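The methods section describes the discrete structure representation at length, but only in general terms. The central task, working out the structure tokens from the amino acid sequence alone, is never made concrete. Nothing conveys this as quickly as seeing an actual entry. For illustration, here is how one protein appears when written out as sequence plus structure tokens:
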Amino acid sequence: MKIGTRKAVLLLHAFPLNKDMYTFQMEAFERENIPYVAVDYPGFGDNPPLLSDYSIEALTDYIVMSVNQLGIKELIVVGDSMGGYIMFEMWRKYKEYVKGYIFTATRAEADNEEAKKARYALIKRIQENGKDFLVDIMLDAQTSPATKKDERKMRTLRCIMEKATEEGIVRALRALAERKDNTELLSSIYVPTLVIAGKDDEKVTPPSVVKKIADGIDGAKFYEVSNSAHLPPFENPQEYNSIVIPFIKELFKEE
């Protein structure tokens, strides 16, 4: 965390990772003197799980209240995957905080019935057999061929995912399965917006799916990051940062 002004970048991570997936962005923000806050969802990273289930709406309330306690009133929000779903809910309830959006490897649509069933099947399997199998599935599904060849990156991703608790994973899966459809919300978003897809994301959020967000938001700019799939900020941070940092710095000038 690096703060000190009323405006900051808020980093919202993918499932089942934590804020460490933004290590390369946090390092760059430090060099560029960009204030930021990176959060762990309950049950992920350093944050213990909640005692009960939650919705994306409740998680959004939790995050915004936490940020508000730091005295931050203006946010440029970066969200990968699950982080994007929180961004949509922020627009519904807390748009006065939002000064810019960077949607990454996410989608506007809710889960269809098949996807919901798959999430609940995962929950049952985790409850019966533990979480280890899920890490293997996610590592395969979320990474590009180039990332898979990078043993160091793959080890790091495994360590990040393994910090997730079984309780945190199960509650997040339920929240994801029951989230709202955000398609109709797109046309109401009026802040400067970037939409970024991993060029090699074939299994989770293909570029054609991610681009629908940019198509629905007036003035949004769409980019594909090479040698990355579902985790562009981690898989190809050089290219990702070259897109997002100039955008963020420009918004910080608008005081």
Notes: The chain has a mean pLDDT of 96.
